[in-house]
Amino acid sequence: MVDRVIAICPSTSQGLQDYSQNLYAELSQRVVAFRMLCNQDYTYIDKNPQATPIYGKNAITDVWLTVAQLRQFKPDIIHSQSTNLGLLCTLLLCKLVFDFELVLTPHSSKSHFGRPLYERFQVQIYNRCDGVIWHTEQDKERMEAAGVTTPQAVIDHGSYDFYTDYRPELTQSTARRELGLNEDDYVFLFFGYLRRDKRLDLLLNAFAHLDDSQLANATLLIAGKSIDDDLTARYIETAEEYGITDHVETHIGFVENDEVPVYFKSANTLVTPYDTISESGVVHIGFAFGLPVIATEVEGFAETFEHGTNGLLVPPDDRSELTGALNYSMTHHAEMQEMGAQNRERAQAEGWQEIAQETVEFYESL
What we know:
Blueprint: E1 4-9, H1 14-27, E2 33-39, E3 51-55, H2 59-73, E4 77-80, H3 85-98, E5 101-104, H4 116-128, E6 131-134, H5 137-146, E7 152-154, H6 172-179, E8 186-191, H7 200-208, H8 212-215, E9 218-224, H9 229-242, E10 248-252, H10 260-266, E11 269-272, H11 281-288, E12 293-296, H12 299-304, E13 311-314, H13 319-331, H14 333-349, H15 352-365
Helix pairs in contact: 1-15, 2-3, 6-10, 7-9, 7-13, 11-14
């Protein structure tokens, strides 16, 4: 049995915090001693007695406090959810002193934030870890082809069904009234960080090409945090240029956990027209709320989605095909609802207990 584990989640990303909290709540019950090092803005600090909020002041303090925790706790395993280059270098140096196994879950084999230095040394970093966990076979195969020889495992992401526990009294009608949406419209939801690779520009273009009769009864609901204010402003200008502002509802900013159900319960279909993705927390939330998904046939989506079962897969960067999928969802409402119901069943079946057990077994294999 694995004895002492330190889990590390220094990120303020809600997706990483959601994943870490669900995994480590189960994982902590399968090891002798467990501690989690997290950011001072960790959402679940009051729900996690093992959480120690040390990150977020400055880089020097982060390093000093990390070393102090390692010296005090003396872990057998450190499992990091972060690919922060400074933190990883600190952990790799600490391995030489404290003699632990370092396991890393990068969540994607591609960087979404333009990190050329990290990407340059990515393979060398992974090969100095003792184990790497991915969520898709494509990520694992890509890194093997790049020269990663350290042990790697593919472990499913897990469900975000816990979001349905927030505001369970909400119905679609009350959620739409809260957001000021037309109760009779067909609502497409784009949710999450407004990053360039998530292709909101493509979705706006596809939505604008719906027939006038369909557009009259459709709403595109956009909710999420801006990463680049200039880019976000350009999206709003694009909607104006297309003449669809009366059918586009924007809520720009971070969405607190207890407000997430308002957006997902308002929607008929979730749309994720991304250029690249390994695993999407947004899609797992959509599944939990029983939404069908229109997604691009790329990487993680192509591996884990089934066209016609979970929703509709379309080629990436193809405006015409995306418009066709939007049209299909509006004209085949009952069929899309059935896909959503299957997604809800899948979310309920994807337990974190099995994922935690697979993670412990990977620790033990190192």
